[in-house]
Write a structure and sequence with these properties.
mainly alpha; about 95% helix
């Protein structure tokens, strides 16, 4: 079993065991999901590194093939004039070919490992996504339950206490309203007198104006 699969299996078993034993389920689930997310991120980083290293291997193999061809051309160019040098070129050509073959064999194993890791990372990311969604759903359920519990008294005693609080609140508001009402009455009376006095001044001014026109 691969590392990521072992991690997922261990994670699920550990999560089930811990959640069944303690009360703070949300904190345990969140911590475990964070731990798994960290491990998956590490595996993803390793996969990216392997893919870069494989690309470097491929570039190295291609360069060795080019060197192999180059030494072959050099051997041809000096075969008739300097056989010893031509043989040295052939030896270099063989070294390039051997190194390229060795790297090619290593690249096959490297690629197979990268493919397995890529599959494991994809599976783990899918499982992590499913667990995160399930966590969100459970949190929503918990919030809804907490809201219902908060708005539903669980005993006659708590209901009586609530009614008493409403009654005291009502009395306090009534007292405040009465005090405000008295002040409002005084203000209304003052406003009524002020309005009558103002109207009287307006009528006097109107009468004076009419008398001037009559003259």
């Amino acid at each position: 079993m691969s590392f990521i699969k072992r991690l997922s299996t261990t994670f699920i078993a550990r999560l089930d065991g811990i959640v069944g034993e303690i009360e703070d389920h949300e904190a345990v689930v969140q911590t475990s999901i964070d731990e798994m997310r960290h491990k998956v991120a590490q595996a993803r980083a390793r996969l990216n590194q392997m893919q870069r290293e494989e690309a470097q291997l491929q570039s190295r193999i291609a360069a060795l093939h080019e060197d192999e061809q180059l030494w072959a051309e050099r051997a041809k160019s000096c075969a008739s004039t300097d056989p010893t040098r031509a043989l040295a070129c052939i030896e270099r050509r063989q070294q390039c070919r051997t190194q390229a073959e060795q790297l090619a064999r290593g690249q096959v194993s490297y690629r197979q490992s990268a493919v397995r890791l890529s599959r494991d990372v994809a599976d783990s990311e899918a499982r992590l996504h499913a667990l995160s969604n399930r966590h969100s759903i459970m949190r929503a359920r918990q919030s809804g339950t907490a809201a219902r519990v908060a708005t539903a008294p669980d005993s006659e005693s708590s209901l009586r206490d609530l009614e008493t609080s409403f009654e005291r609140w009502d009395v306090r508001l009534s007292e405040q309203e009465l005090r405000i009402g008295d002040t409002s009455l005084e203000d209304n009376l003052d406003q009524a007198f002020s309005r009558e006095e103002h109207d009287a001044r307006l009528r006097a001014e109107l009468d004076a104006l009419l008398q001037e026109n009559a003259k």
